[in-house]
Amino acid sequence: MWFLLQSALAAPSIPFEKFELENGLDVILAPDSSIPFVQVNVWYHVGSRNEVAGRTGFAHLFEHLMFQGSANAPGEYFAPLQKIGAQINGTTNIDRTNYFEGIPSHQLPLALFMESDRMGFLLPALDETKLLNQKDVVRNERRQSYENRPYGMAWPWLLESVYPDGHPYHTATIGRHQDIEAATLEDVKAFFQTWYLPNNASLVVSGDFEPRVVRPLVKEWFGDLPRGPAPPKQEFKVAKLKKDVMVRKESDVPFEKVWIAWHTPAVLRPGDAELDLISRVLSDGKDSRLYRRLVRELQIAQDVEAYQTSSYLQSMFIIESTAQPGHTAAELVTAIDDVLADMRKNPATAAELAVARTSFEVAFFDNIATIAGKANLLNNYNFLTGDPGYLEADLARYQLASPGNVRAAFKKYLGRPRVVLEIVPAKAGAQ
Amino acid sequence: MRRLSVAGMLLGLGVMWATMPGFAADRSQPPPPTEPRPFVLPAVAEGALSNGIRVVVVESHEIPFVWVTLSISASPDQDPVGKEGLAMITLDMLNEGAGAYDAAGLSGALKALGSNLSSSVGSDGASVGIRSLSRNLGATLDLMADVVLKPGFPASEWEILQKQYLASLQTDRSDPSLIAARLLEQRVHGQSYRGRQLTEASVKAIDPAAMRGWYDKELGPARATLLVGGDTTLAQVLPELERRFGGWKGAAGAVEPLGAVPPVTQNTLFVAHKAGAAQSVIQAEVYVAAPTDADYFPLVVANHVMGGQFASRINLNLREKNGYTYGARSSVAFDRRGARLSVSTSVKTDVTAAAMKELLYELNGPSTGRAFDATEVADATSAIVSARPLRFESPEYLLRQLENISRYNLPSDWVSTYAANVAAVDPPAANDSWSRRMTQDGALRPMVWVIVGDLTKIREPLAGLGFPMVELDVDGAELKGG
Question: Which residues in A lie closer than 8 A to residue B33 (C-beta atoms)?
Answer without folding.
Answer: 84, 104, 106-107, 109-110
